[in-house]
Amino acid sequence: MMGLTPYLILSAILLVLGIAIVISKRNAIAMLIGVEFILNAATLNLVAFSRHGIGALSGQTAALFVIVLAAAEAVVALAIFLNFYHTIATVDIDQGDQLKG
Amino acid sequence: MLETMIFVLFAGLAVVAGIAILLSTSIVRMAYWLITMLVAVAGLYFLMGAYFLGVMQILVYVGGVAVLLVFGVMLTSRQLAPTLRPGRAEALWLAAVAAVLLVGLVLSILHAHWQPGTIVPANSAAEIGHSLLGEFLGPFELVSVLLLVAMLGAAYLARPKAPTAGPQHIKETTVL
C-alpha cells in the first residue's frame, strides 16, 4: 500500500503549477484555470488525509464542499469576465485598472 | 505494485497537463489540458477509494466547470485575446518563485513525520450522505443558499445591457 507522502508531494506540485499559471497568464480565463488547479491540489490533500485515517470521513465531505464552491466561483467569475469584456472589449487583466464600468 | 503504477500514470498526467497549460498560448488547448488534469485527479480519487467523490469530480468539474470555461472562451473574442506568454525576465522570476515554493513545500512534507492511522476502507455514498445531513448539516444548508445566490448573481451580471448590446454601443452610452 502507498503512503501519504506521494499524494502530498503531488498536491504540492499541482499547487505550485496553479500559482505559476495564475501569475504568468494575462488572460482572465487562463487565470481561472490556474485557480482550478489550486483548488484541486487542496481537495487531493483532503482526500489523502481522509484515506489514511486522519479525520475519518470529514475530508471527503469537505472536498465535496470545495467542488461545489469551485463551481459557484467559476460561474460568478465568468459572469464578471463577460461584463468586463462588454465594457473594455478585452479579457486582458492588465486593462482592468479602473473600478468604473 | 499495481497501485503505484496507476498512481504514477495519473500523477504524471496531471503534472504534464499543468506544464502544458503553462507553456501553451492557445486558450482552447488550455481548456483541453484542464479537462485532462481533472480526469486524472478523479482517477486518483478512485484509487483512494473515494468513489462518490471521483464521480462528482467528473460530473461537476468536467461536465460543468470545463464546459462553462469553453463557453467563456467562445463568448470572448479570440482576435482581441492578449498575448499569453510572459517576457523572459518575467519567466525567470516566475521560475525562481515557483522553485523556491516547491522546494519549501516538499521539504516540509518530508520532515513533518505524519503518523497515519489505519487505511480506511472504501466508503459508500450512503455514508457521505449521512455525514452531509448529520455532522455537516449547517454547511450543507449554507452551500445550498450560496448556490442560489451565485446563480442569481451570475444571471444578473451577465445580462445584456441594451437591446442591441455590442461593445461599441455600450461605450457610447456610458460616455453620454
Please provide a written account of the structure.
The complex is a heterodimer of chains A (101) and B (176). With 101 residues, chain A is mainly α. Chain A has a single domain (5-95), classed as Helix Hairpins. Chain A has helices at residues 5-24, 28-51, 58-88. With 176 residues, chain B is mainly α. Chain B folds into two domains: 1-109, Four Helix Bundle (Hemerythrin (Met), subunit A), CATH 1.20.120.1200; 123-176. Chain B contains seven helices and no strands. Chain B has helices at residues 2-23, 27-47, 51-75, 88-110, 125-133, 137-157, 167-175. In chain B, helix 1 runs antiparallel to helix 2 and helix 2 runs antiparallel to helix 3. The interface between A and B is large, with 75 and 85 residues.
Short description:
The complex is a heterodimer of chains A (101) and B (176). With 101 residues, chain A is mainly α.
Uncertain spans of chain B: none
Separate helix tally of chain A: 3
Largest interface: A-B, 75 and 85 residues
Q: Span between N and C termini of chain A?
A: 56 Å
Summed up, the domain count of chain A is: 1
Radius of gyration of chain B: 22 Å
Percent helix among the residues of chain B?
over 70%
Approximately how much beta-strand content do the residues of chain A carry?
under 5%
Unreliable residue runs of chain A: none
- Just name the CATH architecture of chain A: Orthogonal Bundle
Average of pLDDT of chain A: 86
Number of helix segments of chain B? 7
Under CATH, the homologous superfamily of the largest domain in chain B reads NADH-ubiquinone/plastoquinone oxidoreductase chain 6, subunit NuoJ
- Specify Rg of chain A, calculated over alpha carbons: 17 Å
